[in-house]
Amino acid sequence: MNFLQSAFWRQLTARNVARRVHLAEPVELAPANSMARSYRPEYLLRPANPWFIWTSLAIAFLLNLLPWGRAALAPDFVALALVFWNVHQPRRVGMAAAFVFGLLMDVQGAALMGQHALAYTLLSYGAISLHRRILWFPVLSQVLFVTPLLLLAQLASLLIRLWVGGAFPGAAFFLESVCGALLWPVVSWLLLAPQRRPVEKDDTRPL
Fold this sequence. Notes:
Elements (H helix, E strand, L loop, with lengths): L1 H22 L10 H5 L11 H16 L11 H12 L6 H14 L6 H15 L1 H5 L3 H25 L11 H8 L1 H9 L15
Helix pairs in contact: 3-4, 4-6, 5-6, 6-8, 8-9
């Protein structure tokens, strides 16, 4: 008797489940190519080569040595390269590297010893502190973070110059940081180019 009752209840439960499934609202399935239209493949990045990192910093230093490097509209390429690698490779390029390149800039420019070193160290500290937040944004939006970092480094260098009795160079002095920030998308594209992998397009795989 118990066996018949249990069989009856199992059959009744199965009917109720089937009825609920039958009465449920239909689910609309997306077309096979709809995800392909909305999905934009991103580049996968290879690990950064240490030789490329330090070579790019050396090239940026050489660009600062060119005669037009003293013009108001000429950006500080060393500062740009330091910010980029501080954001993308903070464990390899840190404040020690910024301090060393700052000393080299002080020596080649006959500036007050420690002027660029302090400015680059502050720049590196700010970039490393914000690197996770900066990487959340696209390249064009990253300009909003890079601009105040470059201005902060330039302001620190200017305050040291004024402290030792230097003259104020005028508002055009800060055009260097503005021009450097405008070059950030180009610098990002160039320095990330060796790390990009080709996009492998597969229509049968959604991701």
